[in-house]
Specification:
It is a single chain. The chain is mainly α. The chain has one domain (2-78). The protein is built from 4 helices and no strands. The protein has helices at residues 2-6, 23-32, 50-57, 63-78.
């Protein structure tokens, strides 16, 4: 770790095996470190009241993830 901290820009070697820094790749690695494996998701067709769907969509992108979180919380509360 000490060696890594002491590195400068000139110490970094870009190659095919180690391409230039990709912030998205690093962020995914940091976000996943220490977390449980995310279970696979299933694609389903679901009939939902229009006003409920619009309410979730009004929160912007990620509405399906929010819907999943609500369903998961209900499942866990029900035991």
């Amino acid at each position: 770790m000490r060696r890594l901290r002491s590195m400068t820009e000139s110490d970094v070697r870009i190659s095919a095996e180690h391409p230039e820094f990709d912030l998205n790749h690093v962020a995914r690695g940091i976000a996943r470190r220490g977390l449980k494996v995310v279970p696979a998701k299933a694609s389903v067709s679901l009939r939902i009241d229009a006003d409920v769907l619009e309410w979730f969509k009004s929160g912007g992108a990620g509405y399906q993830t929010r819907m999943n979180a609500v369903l998961r919380a209900f499942k866990e509360a029900a035991g």
